[in-house]
Design brief:
This protein is of the alpha+beta class. It has helices spanning about 15-20, 65-70; strands spanning about 5-10, 30-35, 45-50. About 15% of the residues lie in helices and about 40% in strands. The longest helix is centred in the N-terminal third of the chain and has 7 residues, at about 15-20.
Length: about 70
Amino acid sequence: MTDVVEHVTTRFPTWKEMELLHVTARTSLLAIQRVSTDRAGHVVEAALLALPGDRAEIRFTTHAPSRTEVAR
């Protein structure tokens, strides 16, 4: 994997999500769409995640590119 793009939003759950996650209609969800690609640009992972906002924590870490990567 070389690139990962995550799109994070909040929204209310669908009826099915309420049932599966044991939440109410007024519980906010963190909705995450993640797409990972290889160096050729081919998708190697795609995920749609729905996490109860009252039970989730997200941490983002960004690594600066090395001097070799910047020179490319």
